[in-house]
């Protein structure tokens, strides 16, 4: 399509029915302008994919500086301002399994047990993999004893770093300068393990796990097994983010639904490549090549359709080139018609005759009358207006 049409479509694209939007926002769907498409997208993401044993919960910040009620500020992310998408990813392949747009506190959310917001968010995200004995990894925004208990009742285990100021961490686990580097202390209850680890002097990290029940420490690195497990699985969402960044399809926009749409395109290229590689593990196709092929595959149908429309021959030849079809120099019935020829004086008749003709010679394009033209026999079925014109019959 032309750039003009592309920009027009970009300007006109909407993702919902604006007439009913206010009602949907009032009933709790703050992101109503895009949420239906977003949910459908997420549903499609999970339809053809089975998660591995390990999944990661995290938040993704889609850079956005325009006006939006639920735009967030996150100091730790490079973009700082943006829309927060809560994600559940496969920790091994970084495939996005479930996600929702974080729109702030939702007073209409059902919360009979008075759980904290991070806990509710995780419970929402893991709903498709409940009771599968999978293990979830999360960072200190999510980790709490409450979450571990709730996940346990849903047949899932959890590993995560913990804020040191949580009330339920006992004093022995509080930072203590006298501890030597690479030492660990463990605490056990019936179903969970807490580990306090000092990777360097003055540094410490506390992790909670309901998947590990031993004080196993790696003999070479002196790191507790829990820490190594956390390290190997925590990057699920961040890696997805990184992969998106290297081939972003994002364009600047002041409309947040459009930004979400670009993020969906972003994620779908990464997810579809994961599916492709799962189906063809021997094909080490680079992301760049994959994205080019994906783009071409997506426009194929549209190009075919345009080829049968009334557009200029040059345009058709460009399309044929992209599709890999041989160029055609013969006009076809659907080619754009030239404007009707002006009647001009035949160059071969004497001037005095002043014989006017609408025809031109197909080679030299000079006006020519019937008498001075070669006649060809063409059956009625084949004679089209365009052929008559260009052959100068
Ligand atoms: C999800 O899949 C269905 C069925 O294939 C399709 O109709 C729908 O457009 C898809 N949704 C999105 C957001 O791609
Ligand atoms: C993906 O899921 C859809 C809907 O369940 C199904 O029709 C389709 O065959 C699946 N595709 C593959 C490759 O499994
Ligand atoms: C810090 O650790 C030392 C040695 O393990 C211990 O004697 C001391 O009581 C600890 N201090 C605190 C505040 O826990
Ligand atoms: C690390 O600990 C030492 C002594 O315990 C202290 O002098 C130093 O300021 C600490 N460094 C930082 C960055 O906290
Ligand atoms: C986590 O893994 C990275 C690389 O995979 C490594 O550089 C880092 O030291 C590890 N950290 C811990 C605490 O194991
Ligand atoms: C696409 O992904 C990258 C990395 O997350 C980001 O820089 C870019 O802004 C994204 N675009 C959108 C609209 O999310
Ligand atoms: C193609 O368009 C031209 C004007 O742009 C028109 O005169 C002609 O009839 C059209 N041809 C077909 C086959 O639609
Ligand atoms: C794949 C895997 O290691 N799953 C483990 C998750 O955690 C539970 C509880 O410890 C184990 O039983 C699973 O084997």
UniProtKB/TrEMBL annotation:
Keyword Signal on entry: yes
Q: Where is the signal peptide?
A: 1-22
Keyword terms, alphabetized = Signal
Q: Which residues form the PiggyBac transposable element-derived protein domain?
A: 1-272
Query: Signal: is it a keyword of this entry?
Result: yes
Q: Where does the record place a coiled coil? A: none
Domain of life the protein comes from: Eukaryota
Q: PANTHER family this protein is in?
A: DUAL SPECIFICITY PHOSPHATASE 26 (PTHR46599:SF6), PIGGYBAC TRANSPOSABLE ELEMENT-DERIVED PROTEIN 4 (PTHR46599)
What is the official name of this protein in its record?
PiggyBac transposable element-derived protein domain-containing protein
Q: What species does this protein belong to?
A: Callosobruchus maculatus (Southern cowpea weevil)
